[in-house]
Design goal:
heterodimer; A: five-stranded antiparallel sheet; three-stranded antiparallel sheet; 10 strands; B: alpha/beta; six-stranded mixed sheet; 25 strands; 20% strand
Chain lengths: 308, 687
């Protein structure tokens, strides 16, 4: 399975996975599950489709099954609820090739839902709360709420139905995944952009079009982001010298790396390395970080009872 | 087992002998539907549906008289929950395939026997005065001659399986919202030349039962009408079978109905039964009338039950919804679906060339097999257009969107190699109607007559906005009758009328879109530019006059050009007509033509014959359809095609003599591809 694919382990009782995390950034990735993101605190920049959006507190966005998406760190701390819904929730045995593709983003409601968007925010918060309770009853309740949410989505959120050839996901999505995977594996290559075109046998123009449609970024932005992310990971997880990290991430010189890092992160690589204690909690989850759990509960309760 | 009228009449004396042994109560019991109101309502409450089992009437164990056991249609057999759902008759009418219709009749007959029934109440042949009639999906089109031909074929097929065919709704039942209280009126020639001939054709084809209509004719309920039931049907036409009432509200008065000639009150007894016994005892209804009804019922049931038993056939439930019947349903859809536009030969689409196809419109993924009235069939599965298309394209991406947001629809259409809009009607827009808050209710509150003959405003907007985005755009229309296209037809390259194409409709639509099947259906109605070209009807009224002219005959008489003529339909091949000749032997008129497939693939043409009445001294149509034949030809193949019509069918009704009479004059005769003169070769015959 490719690098950008995320394998999600579902809860033993309910068909999905629910968790709250501080989201720093994630690489571009996809999974079979549908994913609902609800921002509980702070902001998060989301790349999915041609128009990147910044989500604030109480904003909710749905990522479709197999759709490539990524998150970028924004100013300050944040806290996000993720609900990953098994694809099977939306399948019916008679039409097993079908994938429902929803349009739900409360921060940028391109298509109106027939229930107020606050309904989905409350539903998501309730699922977040239920999933945090211990015991079999809580797990059953989470299962029930997930099914209700699935029904609400189909009833009240615009969607189209997609039937893909059995051997592929959407052509664009697959191509973007290939591009993202190549970039991740060749960050050290200073001539990465040119070599990528050769390796994938595609013109720069084609690659540009694919990335703009699926993620709303240019190839340069994609590569820069990937390099910065890798450098952050190496800074926090290893003791490698900064010069080596700059080289391994494909920066032309240590000073280029310093300038780019400072510009994007607001701190130098050294400051980042010494001051940052955040560690990734789970290798399976792309960039999801630890947080204070009582704070999460308070924020969820506030959104679960919010009016709009 | 051809249960002809002659075969039935053989049983007359035997039936009379039985009648002689029956008490008055027993005779009246034969005339009474046995379903209680509670059974009718409760069956629906326990998850079953209307007519889940055959509805019985009469029977007499003591003397071995079988009960009559009614099964509704015509989309298939309504009983049970896995019956074959054929395309609605309007789609079958578009096939102009009487042989296929007869085969469908056989399949329906077998399924009815499989349910234990012995009567098919689904030969619906009312002529739609205006195509907005909500139940016009249940009939074969606007043309009396075609209604008669197709209805007769269904009668033959059903009865050949030992099942009684019941033709309905006799007569003038072409309005839905007002069906319980509208009184229809028309002049005598309209009655005899336009609204009754197809009923007579089916009687002549041997139909052994007739169902009366709810509406009134000239102020009298059709179920009470001595004129319609006794004088015309039983006396003039020599009908030997029995008349049943339309259900629950078809008989409204004991004496009037019984004396009018009604033989069985269906499907439960309100005015017959004890009340009829009392009326006889009081002398208000003669016992002779009761004897006549009982004799007709017994004679008919004996003939059919004997024929079925003697045939050795014993159809069981394995025939219900079986593979062969479903294959027939598919064939009917393949033959009926009509190609109305195909600019630059967009269709058939190239399976291999389509990497991504967009299906747009609310009906794209709907199991849409017609209305939810008494003709609703409950098949085991229905193939939606989306399912049909995606099964056709296992290696392509298919995107379906209901089309609500025009910008999103545009973006999907822009990315796709081809776009298919699926638009039109469903059970909420048209169909049998019973309001929930009225006493007249045993079904659901939906359907009725159409508010407009056009598409819904949002569908028109969708096609207008999104059609031009992709030049490979096709509209698939779903509906029971005329759908106007004037507003949007220029926005797409191809248009396919699919009617309600039955449980395999989605398969047939895809097969035609992608060329596995070459379309051969022809419009069984005229398609005008605008609604006002057609007769106007007040749908909610207690009185409606039917004029002599409707449909293509009206437009032609008034010199109004249609958007598409009656009988129009395109093919993926082309046909040439040549060397037409016309002759008569005094009894029949024959048109002969050489038909050549001038295209590159096999195709089927519906060759049509029309007869003109321009030389008449009377007010008569310019021309009328008087024959048709389906001819299949290989590329380059030529065949000589002859179509004949009895001179009887050229007569007019003389209101002074009360007879059909022939005008002695020169008759233009036409043969060709549609009702448009541009598609016809012409000559004359003198009679």
């Amino acid at each position: 399975m490719s690098n950008s694919f995320e394998n999600i382990q579902h809860h033993p009782v309910y068909p999905g996975k629910v968790f709250v995390t501080q989201m720093k950034s994630s690489r571009y990735h996809w999974h079979y599950d549908y994913e609902i993101l609800l921002v509980l605190k702070g902001t998060l920049q989301v790349h999915c489709g041609p128009d990147p959006t910044t989500l604030g507190v109480g904003s909710l966005q749905l990522f479709n099954s197999k759709s490539i998406h990524g998150f970028k760190h924004a100013e300050g701390d944040n806290l996000c609820l993720f609900i990953q819904l098994a694809k099977g929730l939306f399948e019916d045995a008679q039409n097993d090739r079908r994938v429902l593709h929803f349009y739900l983003n409360t921060a940028s409601p391109k298509y109106p839902t027939t229930l107020p968007s606050s309904h989905f925010v409350r539903s998501a918060a309730h699922i977040g709360l239920a999933s945090r309770e211990d015991g079999f009853a809580a797990a059953l309740r989470t299962r029930a709420l997930l099914h209700t949410l699935a029904a609400d989505l189909v009833s009240h959120v615009p969607y189209d139905t997609r039937l893909y050839p059995s051997h592929q996901q959407s052509a664009e999505g697959e191509m973007t995944a290939a591009i993202s995977d190549y970039v991740d594996c060749h960050l050290h290559d200073a001539g990465l952009a040119g070599n990528l075109c050769k390796a994938l046998g595609m013109s720069e123009k084609t690659i540009y079009r694919y990335l703009k449609t699926t993620l709303g970024v240019t190839l340069k932005e994609l590569i820069d982001t990937a390099r910065l992310e890798r450098s952050q990971q190496l800074l926090t997880d290893t003791d490698k010298p900064i010069g080596l990290i700059a080289e391994q991430c494909g920066f032309l010189s240590e000073s280029t790396f310093y300038r780019a890092f400072k510009k994007e992160m607001g701190v130098t690589p050294n400051e980042y390395r010494s001051g940052d204690t955040i560690k990734a909690v789970d290798g399976n989850i792309q960039g999801y970080l630890e947080f204070d759990s009582t704070e999460a509960k308070t924020l969820l309760q506030a959104l679960a009872t919010s009016e709009s | 087992m051809n249960v002809t009228k002659e075969a039935r009449l053989v049983n007359t004396e035997r039936a009379k002998a039985i009648v002689g042994q029956l008490t008055l109560e027993e005779k009246v019991f034969l005339m009474s539907g046995s379903v209680t109101w509670e059974e009718l309502v409760n069956s629906m409450a326990i998850g079953q549906h209307y007519n889940y089992v055959p509805y019985a009437a009469g029977g007499n164990e003591r003397l071995g008289v079988p009960s009559m056991r009614f099964c509704d249609g015509p989309r298939g057999v309504v009983c049970g929950d896995k019956g074959t759902c054929f395309p609605v008759p309007m789609c079958r009418g578009a096939s102009f395939d009487t042989q296929l219709e007869e085969e469908i009749g056989h399949a329906i007959g077998r399924e009815i026997r499989g349910h234990g029934g012995n009567l098919f109440g689904g030969v619906c042949i009312n002529l739609p005065y205006n195509p907005g009639w909500g139940r016009s999906q249940e009939v074969y089109g606007e043309e009396s001659f075609a209604l008669g031909q197709m209805g007769s074929a269904l009668v033959r097929g059903v009865q050949d399986e030992g099942v009684i065919a019941c033709i309905k709704h006799y007569a003038f039942n072409s309005m839905e919202l007002s069906r319980f209280n509208v009184s229809v009126d028309c002049d005598r020639r309209t009655e005899r030349e336009v609204y009754l001939p197809h009923f007579k054709d089916c009687i002549d084809a041997g139909a052994a039962s007739v169902m009366s209509a709810y509406n009134l004719y000239k102020g009298t309920h059709c179920g009470h009408s001595d004129y319609l039931l006794r004088k015309v049907l039983k006396e003039e036409w020599g009908f030997d079978g029995f008349v049943i009432s339309d259900f629950v509200w078809g008989v409204l008065d004991t004496e009037e109905a019984a004396n009018g000639g009604m033989d069985i009150e269906m499907c439960h007894t309100k005015f017959f039964g004890d009340k009829l016994v009392e009326a006889v005892k009081a002398g208000d209804v003669s016992e002779t009338r009761i004897d006549e009804a009982a004799m007709r019922i017994i004679r008919t049931l004996f003939a059919f039950e004997d024929a079925y038993r003697d045939s050795g056939k014993a159809y069981d439930t394995s025939h219900i919804g079986c593979k062969d019947h479903i294959a027939l349903a598919l064939k009917a859809a393949q033959e009926g679906i009509t190609l109305l536009k195909n600019q630059n030969s967009l269709l058939p689409l190239d399976k291999g060339g389509i990497k991504k196809i967009a299906v747009l419109g609310k009906l794209g993924d709907r199991e849409n097999i017609g209305d939810h009235g008494s003709s609703r069939v409950y098949p085991e599965y229905v193939v939606t257009p989306l399912q049909g298309i995606s099964a056709m394209l296992p290696n392509s991406e298919v995107i379906y969107y209901n089309g609500e947001d025009l910008e999103h629809a545009k973006s999907i259409a822009g990315e796709a190699d081809a776009v298919v809009f699926v638009v039109g009607y469903d059970c909420n827009d048209e169909g049998e109607y019973v309001a929930t808050n009225e006493e007249h209710n045993y079904m659901a509150n939906a359907g009725g007559d159409r508010k407009s003959l056009g598409l819904h405003a949002d569908e028109t907007a969708l096609i207008q906005a999104v059609g031009p985005v992709n030049s490979n755009s096709t509209v698939v229309l779903i509906g029971g009758n005329t759908i106007l296209m004037t507003e949007w037809m220029d926005c797409v390259s191809a248009i396919l009328m699919a009617y309600y194409p039955g449980q395999e409709g989605g398969t047939a639509i895809a097969q035609i879109l992608f060329g596995d099947i070459n379309p051969s259906g022809k419009l069984p109605y005229v398609l005008p530019y605008k609604e006002s070209d057609l007769p106007q009807v007040e749908w909610e009224t207690d009185h409606q006059f039917y004029e002599y002219y409707h449909g293509y005959a009206k437009l032609e008489k008034e010199g109004v050009a249609p958007l598409l003529p009656y009988g129009f339909g395109l093919s993926y091949t082309t046909f040439a007509y040549d060397k037409a000749s016309f002759a008569t032997d005094g009894d029949t008129v024959t048109a002969t033509v050489q038909l050549t497939n001038t295209g590159t693939r096999e195709g089927t043409e519906v060759v049509q014959m029309y007869v003109g009445f321009q030389n008449s001294q009377l007010d008569r149509p310019v021309k009328l359809l008087r024959g048709f034949r389906r001819i299949t030809l290989a590329p380059g193949e030529t065949q000589t095609v002859s179509i004949s019509c009895p001179v009887e069918k050229l007569k007019y009704f003389n209101v002074h003599t009360g007879d059909f009479e022939l005008e002695h004059m020169e008759y233009p005769v036409y043969i060709g591809a549609s009702a448009s003169n541009a598609d016809l070769l012409t000559g004359t015959v003198s009679l």
